[in-house]
Design a protein that fits this description.
Elements: H1 2-22, H2 26-43
Transmembrane segments: 25-43
Keywords: Membrane, Transmembrane, Transmembrane helix
Amino acid sequence: MKKVFGFALFWFAAGMIVMMLLSDVLWGTVIAITGIVLAYCLFCR
């Protein structure tokens, strides 16, 4: 189940990066980086 959450969180973070490229938002950057780190911890371990 952790892999499913990690996979979903990875794509959520990827979507946040796309959003960041469309509109420069500091919180988008913070949330995207946090999501990528959490996705790595959940999916890759």
